[in-house]
Write a structure and sequence with these properties.
single chain, alpha+beta, 60s Ribosomal Protein L30, Chain: A, Phosphoribosyl-aminoimidazole Synthetase, Chain A, domain 2, 6-stranded mixed sheet, 11 helices, 32% helix
């Protein structure tokens, strides 16, 4: 992989992929005598079999370098929402209903004012997702941490006969895109590099840049759970994070995807691209580009799905279809 804008800014996706592969390989070298794991590695969340009928879905994620922007602005009351969103949006992708989270806050030194503000965001995120935050950990790691890091882990419950893995997706199925609220919590190393030098109170995007950058990650749980409880044939769910629409390829079906009518691209992405001269292909690899979540449904259920989702997201629309050609997303 040639060095791209993201790598020059300090993040190598190639190195990250290799590191994850090494971790997975090491873990696989010592399998348990009897595994309860239901799904293969690589999905948004995994599921542990509790009994013949019930599974527990698990996922973990953090906020990333969006925290640097929060520190620059001295505003910590929204990043907790991001922490919740990045976890619950993954758990719901396997058809599970998220139930609870724990959080992990690693700090250079404890600060009750900052911790309280982060807690406000965590509580708001839990409310939006319909979950509880039942515990957590605060670690003072002055020898390791310069600033702070915020992450969490979420679990949910799913009937094993109702798992949504994407395995039954077939060519012609509709791909419905749900709008993002902005950058969400991915690509901030590149975004901050591209936007360096622009004051945080710059209003060229219609409101202060700092507000745009700290806009919380959208939480899609309630509309998606509502859809799962309906008679719509939901065949695949994809949280669009780093990797963009290629995240659809985490779904199990041997299909590709033709994205012929993508959602509008918010101005923040255009500004980043212009400032850093980032190729369009790389922008789509790093950012959500305006689409934060995808729902794949049987073609016959497209209209019913749109009616339900537009009650929550006026901008929801069919952005494409599943197609022949496994492992390929054409935008």
């Amino acid at each position: 992989m040639t060095e791209d804008a993201y790598a020059k800014a300090g993040v190598s996706q190639g190195d990250a992929d290799a590191a994850v592969a090494a971790l997975v390989s090491a873990l696989g070298a010592f399998p348990p005598a009897e595994s309860r794991q239901v799904l293969a590695s690589g999905h948004y969340a995994n599921v542990i079999r509790i009994d013949d009928r019930t599974g527990i879905a698990l996922s973990t994620d953090g906020v990333g370098t969006k925290l640097v922007v929060a520190e620059q602005l001295g505003r910590w009351d929204t990043v907790g929402i991001d922490c919740v969103a990045m976890n619950v949006n993954d758990v719901v992708c396997v058809g599970a209903e998220p139930l609870a989270m724990v959080d992990y806050l690693a700090v250079e030194r404890a600060d009750s004012e900052i911790a309280g503000a982060i807690g406000v965001g965590l509580a708001r995120g839990a409310e939006l997702a319909g979950i509880e935050i039942v515990g957590g950990e605060l670690a003072q790691l002055g020898e390791l941490i310069n600033g702070l890091d915020l992450a969490g882990a979420c679990f949910g419950v799913v009937a094993l006969d109702s798992l949504v893995t994407g395995a039954v997706i077939e060519p012609g199925d509709a791909v419905i895109g749900l709008p993002s609220s902005g950058l969400h919590s991915n690509g901030y190393t590149l975004a901050r590099s591209a936007l360096k030098g622009i004051p945080m109170d710059d209003a060229r995007l219609g409101r202060p840049l700092g507000d745009v950058l700290l806009e919380p990650t959208e939480i899609y749980v309630k509309p998606v759970v509502e859809l799962l409880r309906s008679d719509v044939d939901v065949r695949g769910l994809a949280h669009i994070t780093s990797g963009g629409l290629d995240n659809l390829l985490r779904l199990e079906a041997e299909v590709g995807y033709e994205i012929d009518d993508p959602l509008p691209v918010p101005p923040i992405f255009t500004l980043i691209q212009e400032r850093a001269d980032v190729p369009s292909d790389e922008m789509h690899e790093v950012f959500n580009m305006g689409c934060g979540f995808c729902v794949v449904v049987a073609a016959r259920d497209e209209e019913a799905t749109m009616k339900r989702l537009r009650a929550h997201y006026a901008g929801a629309k069919r952005i494409g279809r599943a197609a022949e050609g496994a492992g390929v997303v054409r935008v």
